[in-house]
Amino acid sequence: MGILAILQTVGSLLTGLGAAFVFLQFRQQNMQFVTEFEDGLTKEYREIVQDLPVKVRASEDVDWEQNKQDIYRYIDLCNEQIFLRQNGRVSKETWKSWQEGMESNIQEGVFNSGWENIKSNTDSFDELKRVEKEDWDTDPYHWENIRYGEKLWRWIMGRRRKRPF
Hints:
Blueprint: H1 3-51, H2 54-57, H3 68-86, H4 92-106, H5 109-120, H6 126-133, H7 148-156
Helix pairs in contact: 1-3, 3-4, 3-5, 3-6
Protein backbone atom coordinates (compact mmCIF):
# COMPACT_ATOMS: atom_id res chain seq x y z
CA MET A 1 0.00 0.00 0.00
CA GLY A 2 1.53 3.25 -1.13
CA ILE A 3 1.51 6.62 0.50
CA LEU A 4 -1.16 7.85 -1.93
CA ALA A 5 -3.54 5.04 -0.94
CA ILE A 6 -2.96 5.77 2.75
CA LEU A 7 -3.66 9.48 2.21
CA GLN A 8 -6.84 8.66 0.30
CA THR A 9 -8.02 6.36 3.10
CA VAL A 10 -7.24 8.95 5.76
CA GLY A 11 -8.97 11.62 3.66
CA SER A 12 -12.07 9.46 3.30
CA LEU A 13 -12.16 8.79 7.04
CA LEU A 14 -11.81 12.48 7.85
CA THR A 15 -14.56 13.35 5.37
CA GLY A 16 -16.85 10.79 7.01
CA LEU A 17 -16.06 12.13 10.46
CA GLY A 18 -16.69 15.68 9.28
CA ALA A 19 -20.05 14.70 7.82
CA ALA A 20 -20.99 12.92 11.05
CA PHE A 21 -20.01 16.00 13.04
CA VAL A 22 -22.14 18.27 10.83
CA PHE A 23 -25.11 15.90 11.19
CA LEU A 24 -24.76 15.81 14.98
CA GLN A 25 -24.52 19.59 15.12
CA PHE A 26 -27.65 19.84 13.00
CA ARG A 27 -29.55 17.52 15.34
CA GLN A 28 -28.32 19.39 18.41
CA GLN A 29 -29.43 22.66 16.89
CA ASN A 30 -32.81 21.13 16.07
CA MET A 31 -33.26 19.90 19.65
CA GLN A 32 -32.48 23.42 20.89
CA PHE A 33 -35.10 24.80 18.52
CA VAL A 34 -37.68 22.31 19.84
CA THR A 35 -36.92 23.35 23.42
CA GLU A 36 -37.32 27.04 22.59
CA PHE A 37 -40.53 26.29 20.69
CA GLU A 38 -41.97 24.34 23.65
CA ASP A 39 -40.98 27.15 26.02
CA GLY A 40 -42.88 29.61 23.81
CA LEU A 41 -46.05 27.51 24.04
CA THR A 42 -45.66 27.22 27.79
CA LYS A 43 -45.39 31.01 27.94
CA GLU A 44 -48.59 31.29 25.89
CA TYR A 45 -50.35 28.99 28.38
CA ARG A 46 -49.19 31.12 31.30
CA GLU A 47 -50.43 34.27 29.56
CA ILE A 48 -53.87 32.72 29.02
CA VAL A 49 -54.11 31.51 32.60
CA GLN A 50 -52.88 34.86 33.91
CA ASP A 51 -55.79 36.58 32.15
CA LEU A 52 -58.30 34.38 33.99
CA PRO A 53 -59.73 35.54 37.29
CA VAL A 54 -58.37 33.88 40.42
CA LYS A 55 -61.76 32.22 40.99
CA VAL A 56 -61.39 30.34 37.70
CA ARG A 57 -57.87 29.21 38.50
CA ALA A 58 -59.02 28.09 41.95
CA SER A 59 -61.76 25.95 40.33
CA GLU A 60 -64.45 27.83 42.19
CA ASP A 61 -67.97 27.99 40.82
CA VAL A 62 -67.78 30.60 38.06
CA ASP A 63 -70.03 31.28 35.08
CA TRP A 64 -68.28 30.11 31.96
CA GLU A 65 -70.01 32.81 29.89
CA GLN A 66 -68.06 35.51 31.74
CA ASN A 67 -64.74 33.87 30.80
CA LYS A 68 -65.69 32.41 27.43
CA GLN A 69 -62.94 34.08 25.40
CA ASP A 70 -60.06 32.98 27.65
CA ILE A 71 -61.43 29.47 28.08
CA TYR A 72 -61.83 29.17 24.30
CA ARG A 73 -58.22 30.34 23.87
CA TYR A 74 -57.11 27.65 26.33
CA ILE A 75 -59.10 24.92 24.55
CA ASP A 76 -57.67 26.06 21.22
CA LEU A 77 -54.14 26.00 22.68
CA CYS A 78 -54.72 22.45 23.97
CA ASN A 79 -55.83 21.33 20.52
CA GLU A 80 -52.79 23.00 18.94
CA GLN A 81 -50.47 21.29 21.42
CA ILE A 82 -51.98 17.92 20.50
CA PHE A 83 -51.53 18.67 16.81
CA LEU A 84 -47.90 19.67 17.39
CA ARG A 85 -47.18 16.44 19.30
CA GLN A 86 -48.90 14.49 16.55
CA ASN A 87 -46.46 15.98 14.07
CA GLY A 88 -43.40 15.43 16.25
CA ARG A 89 -42.83 19.09 17.07
CA VAL A 90 -42.72 18.59 20.86
CA SER A 91 -40.90 16.04 23.00
CA LYS A 92 -42.51 13.13 24.80
CA GLU A 93 -41.73 14.58 28.23
CA THR A 94 -43.31 17.91 27.33
CA TRP A 95 -46.34 16.14 25.88
CA LYS A 96 -46.84 14.11 29.08
CA SER A 97 -46.70 17.29 31.15
CA TRP A 98 -49.13 19.10 28.87
CA GLN A 99 -51.48 16.14 28.76
CA GLU A 100 -51.60 15.94 32.56
CA GLY A 101 -52.32 19.66 32.72
CA MET A 102 -55.08 19.38 30.11
CA GLU A 103 -56.70 16.52 31.98
CA SER A 104 -56.50 18.35 35.29
CA ASN A 105 -57.83 21.64 33.92
CA ILE A 106 -60.53 20.34 31.60
CA GLN A 107 -62.01 17.91 34.08
CA GLU A 108 -62.60 20.60 36.71
CA GLY A 109 -64.83 23.61 37.23
CA VAL A 110 -65.28 26.30 34.66
CA PHE A 111 -62.89 24.68 32.18
CA ASN A 112 -65.04 21.57 32.23
CA SER A 113 -68.31 23.43 31.69
CA GLY A 114 -66.63 25.53 29.02
CA TRP A 115 -65.25 22.47 27.26
CA GLU A 116 -68.62 20.71 27.40
CA ASN A 117 -70.27 23.79 25.92
CA ILE A 118 -67.66 24.19 23.18
CA LYS A 119 -67.65 20.47 22.39
CA SER A 120 -71.42 20.34 21.94
CA ASN A 121 -71.53 23.43 19.70
CA THR A 122 -68.68 22.83 17.26
CA ASP A 123 -67.26 20.23 14.92
CA SER A 124 -63.74 21.51 15.67
CA PHE A 125 -61.20 20.29 18.20
CA ASP A 126 -61.11 16.69 16.95
CA GLU A 127 -57.65 16.14 18.42
CA LEU A 128 -58.71 17.20 21.91
CA LYS A 129 -61.89 15.16 21.64
CA ARG A 130 -59.81 12.10 20.76
CA VAL A 131 -57.40 12.57 23.67
CA GLU A 132 -60.36 12.89 26.04
CA LYS A 133 -62.06 9.85 24.49
CA GLU A 134 -58.88 7.83 25.02
CA ASP A 135 -59.08 8.74 28.71
CA TRP A 136 -56.17 11.22 28.65
CA ASP A 137 -53.72 8.36 28.11
CA THR A 138 -52.55 8.57 24.53
CA ASP A 139 -49.64 9.89 22.54
CA PRO A 140 -50.75 11.61 19.33
CA TYR A 141 -47.28 11.05 17.92
CA HIS A 142 -48.26 7.42 17.43
CA TRP A 143 -51.58 8.10 15.73
CA GLU A 144 -51.51 6.60 12.25
CA ASN A 145 -52.57 9.56 10.12
CA ILE A 146 -49.15 11.03 9.40
CA ARG A 147 -48.08 11.35 5.77
CA TYR A 148 -45.09 9.39 4.49
CA GLY A 149 -43.08 12.56 3.91
CA GLU A 150 -43.60 13.57 7.53
CA LYS A 151 -42.37 10.15 8.70
CA LEU A 152 -39.24 10.58 6.58
CA TRP A 153 -38.70 14.07 8.00
CA ARG A 154 -39.09 12.72 11.55
CA TRP A 155 -36.44 10.12 10.83
CA ILE A 156 -34.05 12.71 9.39
CA MET A 157 -34.61 14.99 12.38
CA GLY A 158 -33.99 12.14 14.80
CA ARG A 159 -37.55 11.72 16.02
CA ARG A 160 -38.03 8.03 15.48
CA ARG A 161 -40.90 6.28 17.20
CA LYS A 162 -38.62 4.36 19.54
CA ARG A 163 -36.64 7.40 20.56
CA PRO A 164 -36.90 7.81 24.34
CA PHE A 165 -37.32 11.58 24.34
